[in-house]
Amino acid sequence: MSNERVATGVPGLDKMLHGGLLPGTAVLLRGAPGVGKTTLSFQFLKQGIAEDESGLFITFEEFPAALYRDAASLGFDLQAWEHEGKLQIIFTSPEVLLKSLQDPTSIICQRLRMTDVRRAVLDSATHFGRLTADDLELREIYNTLVNSLHRDQITTLLLSEEQRSGYRQTDRGALSFLTDGIILLRYVEVESTIQRAIVIFKLRGSGHDCKIRHYQIAEGGVVIGEPFQGRQAILSGISHRI
Description:
By secondary structure, this protein is an alpha/beta fold. It contains 8 helices and 11 strands. A hairpin with a 2-residue loop joins strand 6 and strand 7.
């Protein structure tokens, strides 16, 4: 077990992770739209820039202008990071990215190596599911993706959209088995109010906090709170008192 850690930029999450992520790992960040996945990823990239680590944000559906706007509303200046050469934003498709990762001479692979990218965010891994209806083929696609990230020792957050209220759902392509960690962000109902919950399902090669905790989104990003107390079935979406 390595003592070296990659800080996420979210102090409360780093505490849950016993210091941060392990270098070069690919971690699945799951959650419904609007729950804070992209916000947390901005914090992750900002932390890397503060530590002189180049970052990469790969998006399949949001144009850079939309990312600039959303990030600015939370206090992150993505354009400034780009101009300083500390961040690259690539707007592409799953098909193009997959072919690029399989070709070391591709423009994307060359950019990764020339700028020595150490942190990456992919938004979102869910889009690879559109490439095939065959689960075995999708698993091979995910294998190619995760192995490429491991090969280049890039610590990556793979964002994954989750629509269903249940956290036990079919995992097409078994991406959750291929990644090194799983962090779940979830809307939950508590006493007729909607709150947010975060939990770490898996962190290969490391211990971690298994408690389900509150979190909020404020200017500057995600803020982790205390564990839920006196409640059952938190991850079902509708909890009840013990």
